Structure formats: structure tokens, C-alpha cells
Amino acid sequence: MISHHFRALICGATACILACGTLLTNAEAAKAPSGLLCNLLEHPEETVITTATPGFGWIYDPSFPDDTQAAYRIIVASSESSAAHAIGDVWDSGLVQSHSSINVSYAGPALVGNKDYFWCVQTVDTSGHASLFSAVQHFHTDAALTAQSDSSWIDPVGVPLVGLVYNASTNIWANRYPLRYVPNMPVRITNTAPGRWFVDFGQDAFAHLTIHVKGVYDNKRVQIQFGEMASNNAVDVLPPEGSNIRYTNVFFTLQNGDYTYTVHPPPNAVYNKTRIINPPENFGSVIPFRYVELINFPGKLSSADIVQQQLLDEFNTNAAAFNSSSPALNQIWNLCRNSMQILSFDGIYVDGDRERTPYEADCYIHQLSAYAVDRDFATPRYTFEYLLQHPTWPTEWKFHMIFIAWADYLQTGNKDLIARYYDALKPDLLVEQATDNGLIKGFPHFPMSTNSDVVDWPPSDRDGFVIKDGQYLNWTNSVNNAFYYRSLQIMANMADAIGRTNDAATYQSMAKQVYASYNAVFWDSNSHCYVDGVGTGHASAHANFFPLAFGLVPADRKAAVIDYIHSRIAANDGMPASVYGAQYLLEALFENNDTDTALALMTTSGPRGWLNMINSGSTLTTEAWNLQDKTNMDWNHPWGAAPGNLITRFVIGLRPLSPGYDQVLIQPHLGRALSYVDGIVPTIRGPFSIQEARTEDSFRVVADIPGNVTATVLLPVTSTNVIARVDGNIAATTLTNNWLAIKSIGSGKHVILMSTRNTSMTAAYRN
Questions:
Q1: Distance of CA 162 to the CA centre of its chain
Q2: How far apart are CA 668 and CA 593, in angstroms?
Q3: How far apart are alpha carbons 526 and 400 in whole angstroms?
Q4: Exposure of 161 by Cβ count < 10 A (0-12 exposed, 13-18 middle, 19+ buried)?
């Protein structure tokens, strides 16, 4: 509610705009907005915008704790100079009384195609102080603008979905960033023998090489070996047989004089398959490599002479940070962060170098972990639209399309994607497979030429899950139905968000029926666990952690299900799922406050964990836990990066309570293993900086919250004898299921301290 006093300030400011075209700022001006977005892009100048009504967004920087934006003014100009002087010769919104700072639609005169525009924004805080204008952002319109409120995307193999075909001369796709080569210098160069040099770039990446050579060498031939593995200062020329860990070599000839040579590794024949996505031809071939060995190379080689040219998408390496009391968890976070940056090499979420193909489940995990480390919404949106045109076959992968669309809405608060593709998502529910009790039948036939149940992959990571085939084509699978239940809930939420109220009611009703039937059909009352499917008494870890993750387990059964999952962890001597299944197993454990088990699995030094990926020599997440699990695995698979999102969403505990992050939850899961965590998490509203520390009798959170955001903080308690303070003041709290809730914490920096009532505040703050 805006006070009468502030309303008068706004009205006066509006009159000033009408009179002189500018808002007079107070001597104590509010902070200027930052982090501008045009159609969810931080760098729209790198692409073209295809919509006639682009959406604008910005980070509102609060002037003081609990401040929110009270008004904004947008300037759109035909030149950078005009925008910088707040001259809106295209559109001046005037002062708009609104808290909105994301997804604000352009509402001026019709934009012209193939033209440059420049925009900036000014805000007013709740005390009536106007900010300076933001920096100016530049965008360029496509020659053929559409009336749609969202953007259109381009198939990287050259087939337009809607809009502009890739332009090789300018390296531009519509509404998403161009690829670029980014130089990476060696971390170590070793002269191992006369004419033989070993180079370690410190990071596996999809790349080619540039080498600077000066001298007279009379067409001397030099061999270059590229590899992902090395030992004893030599590239491993024989990676494990059957694996997709890369090695290749190429020769080039030295000319007389001063030259910088561009050396591309030869392309692999597998890359010519139909579903393979390669970078545009003008980029040349790339393969993943960390190490290079030069043979028969004359002269000396310095770190300035040889460069790994990494093929990358737009990525802000400073957008996120993480540190904790666990060195292992810190290593794992860095592994996942690096994977999110390096594995954007195709401008789309592909599943690694073995196939270079988007798959729905892979893309969902990639999407969640990418959100955790960068403020990029274009790549996951494009990937989603590509998969609508190029779906894959696994049964559960269909449901992941619904997951991807919902994750986009939660992150952006932007309804364009779900509104545009809502009807296209309906077939992915597989409603036609529903039986009389509401549960769906599976597709358990192999090879995977059509729909097929996966459960987990590779098959050895299913914990013995029984997939019936042959005469059992109508078999009812518990994992499929867990996905079906969750997808019905999400579709109901999306239907409600876009005003499809009848659909929302229908899907909610169907979900209730599935819930009841699921617990009647799959629950084994003797063993106190869920079985794999109808007609089998086998109960895998998967048949239990998927329903636990998706909210299918009634409260009075949760303890038994968690105990059963523990028994399967023990039986497998650790992780009972693949790198893919681990996403949902760990979600289930964190969601149900089994933090110690989740952290132990995440940081295990055994053969089925992320430390094993690192200790094996990979600098990117791998396709499987080890070569024994999957002999043809590669060393660059983003679906192995589940901790990248789990650390943010559960360990730090930051999650949106409403689409677009205007309401958020901060619920740290430190367990007994962690004494502190610090993190910076990028969001559409701006970065959250969160520090969390615990002792035996206190828990402290220091949170710097972006503007236009309200947080609820949940802190773990083991006693009712606790008190909470926010910025030194006793806070109103509620206690539910051993979590103490402190609500309505506004923007800015706040210190939230919970302690036992007999703990001195001085000691608690010191800790």
C-alpha cells in the first residue's frame, strides 16, 4: 500500500516529468538500477530481438533495508546519446507507480525492424527518492518483427523454428547469444625430450589450438596430440578401450617467418550422425581436450606461444560463488560450475561429446545447475523449444519437458513460454496410457526405437529394478507413475497461471486419483516400502526415492521409506543410483530432512561419487560414476552435475516460493557435517549473498537480499527453547516439524540469529 504522503510525492514527480521531461532527484539519490534485461537477455546487443513488444527487466538496488521499488520510468531512444540524456524520442513511459522490475512490456509506438534501439530505466524508492538512470542497454530488432510477446528461436542445424536463420557472416542467432572462442593459457609447459613438449591447460574444454612460431624451419612437420587423459607428462594415446575419453592427433607444417597457426583437431566420424549438433561450420571442428603434446617441434615454447581456444557461449564467471567448511563439497561445486560454463560449447544443452545431442532429462539437470551459477535464461529456453521439435524416446524424458517449462517460469516469472507451448506439452503427459484407476501403463520394450521405460541409466544403476517386457506391455511401473503424478501437478499449476482454470481443476483431480491409487497399488504393507510395479514383489531404491521426491509418500510412511532407502544405500555400499538418478535421490533426502545422508553421499570418496570424477582426472562431470559402470562413458556430461543445483537449492537452501523470486525461501541444510557455508547465487532479481553458520546452540544467517524480494527463513531446531532475532530485534516465529520460520524479511542486508534462550547474544554473534 502506498501512503498518501508518498502518493503526493509520486504525483508531484509525474507533474515534473510532464513539465520538463525529467525527474528531479533528491540530493540523497537512490541507487541506480543495474543488471538490465531485454527479453531476458543481459547482452541483447549480441543478438537480434524478433518480438515487437520486448520485455524489460532490471535489478532494483534497495536504498535501505526492507526498501522496495515504488515507481519506475523507462526511456527508449533511437540513439545511445539520447538515452543517456533521458530523452525518450521513441518512448518515455513516464513515472509508473509499480513494484514491477521484471517482465515489463514495451508499450510505446510500434518498433521498426532492422533498427538499433537504446533503453534505460530510473526507479523511485519507498521514501520518495529517485535514482539516477541506469546504464544504457542496446538492442537490435530483426527485419521481420513478430507480434508475439515472446521470442522465437533457431535450430542450430539451420532449420528455423520461428524467425531468423543463423547468419554465418555475423555469427548471430535470434534471441540468443553467439558462440565465441575464449583463450585459455597453459598452467604448465614441460620440455620432456628434444623437440617434445607437454602442455597442460588445467581445464578440459571443447577447443582448438593456436601456436605462435617465429623462425626459419623449411616446412618442418610437427605432430600435435590432443587428449583428455595424461600421465607422466605425456598425453594418453590409448584411453580405456571402448570409452569416449578423447584422444586424437594432427600434423601441421611450419613456414619460414613469424606466424600464429590455428590448428583444429580432426572431426570424429560419429559427429556426422543425424541427431548430432555441431557448431556452425565456420567455427571449425573442436573436441574436448585438456592436454597437448608437440612432437618434432623446434625451438622453445612459452605460455604466451600456445593457447587453448575454448568454444563457449556467453557466461559470467563471477556471477556465483561457494565456500564451505567441507573442502570436498567446495571441489564438487567447482567441478559443476566449470561444467556449466564449458559444456555450453554448442549453444544448446547437449549430453556431452559422445552423442552431442539434447535429451530431455539431461537438459533439465543442466538447466537447474546452470541457473545456480549464471543469470542466463536464453539457452535453456532455446533447448526446450528445440526438444519440442526433436523429442527423444524414453518414457520419463517426456515428463521432463513439463519440468523444464515449469523451472523456466519459476526462475523468470515470465509466462510467455508456458502460454505459447502449453498445448504442445499436453501429449507429454501420456494421459492416453491411463488405466481405470488413473495410473499409466509403461513402455517396457527395447531396443529403444519408440517409447521405452528407462528408470535409470545405465541399467546396472537401477538397483535391480524389475522392468517387465514381452507379454507385459501393459505393465504398470511405479517410477513412471511417480513422474506422471508430479507432471499432473505441474500442468495444473501452469494451467492456473495462464487462466486455464478448467484444465487446472481436471489435472488436480487426476493427480488426487493417482495419489490414492499409487499408495494402494505399489505399497507393500509387509515390507513397508514401495515395489517396482504391478506383479512383482521387488522393491528397489528407485521405487522409493522417486515417490519420496515427488510428494507421493504420506507422512506416516516417510520414516519407513527413508529407512528402506538407507538399507539400499548400505546394500550398494553407497550410491544406489546413477549420476542421473542421484538428482532425485538427493532431492528426496534433502526435502525430508535427511541431510546427513545426502551430504555423505554427495561427498563420498568412494567409486560412486563426484570426488571419484575429480580423482580420476576429469575437470568436468562425467557420464557415469566410473568406467566399470559404463564402459563407453565420456568425461564431459552435464547430466552428472546435480550438486550444482542441489548445493544452491538445499545446502544454501535458496528457492523461489513464487515465480520470479519475489518471494523466496532460505532453508539451509548444513547437517552435522558442515559448520558454515557462504554463497552468491544469481537470480533474475539480482544476486543473493548468503552466509550461514551453526554451533551446538546457535544458527546465524547473514543474507543480502535483492530489491523487490521478501524472504522466509527456516532454521533447523532440536529444542523449543530457542529465540530468533533479526538485526538484533526479537522476531515473531512459528515452529513446524523442527523448523523455525521467520517470515517477511525484506531486501537489503540482514542478520538472522537463532539461539537457545540461555546463550549470550555476544557469544552467538561471535560464532
A1: 25
A2: 10
A3: 33
A4: middle
By DSSP bridging, strand 137-146 and strand 49-51 are parallel
Q: What is the pTM of this model?
A: 0.93
CB atoms within 10 A of CB 569: 21
Is residue 162 helix, strand or coil?
Answer: coil
Q: What pLDDT, in 10s, does the model give residues 524-538?
A: 999 999 999 998 999
Distance CA 735, CA 753 (A): 15
C-alpha cell at 315: 557466461
What is the C-alpha separation between 286 and 209, in angstroms, rounded? 9
Structural domains in the chain? 4-176 (2.60.40.10), 181-312 (2.60.120.260), 329-652 (1.50.10.10), 663-766 (2.60.420.10)
Give residue 691's region: left, alpha or beta (phi > 0; psi -120 to 50).
beta
Secondary structure of 240-287 in HEC code, one letter for each residue: CCCCCCCEEEEEEECCCEEEEEEECCCCCHHHHCCCCCCCCHHHCCCE
Integer Cα distance of 16 and 35 in angstroms: 27
Question: Do 359 and 401 contact (CB within 8 A), yes or no?
Answer: no
Each residue's pLDDT tens digit, 468-519: 765 445 689 999 999 999 999 999 999 999 999 999 999 999 999 999 999 9
Size (the chain), residues: 767
Type of residue found at 242: G
Which residue type sits at 465?
F
At 53 the three-state DSSP class reads coil
Q: Which three cell numbers stand for residue 495?
A: 494451467
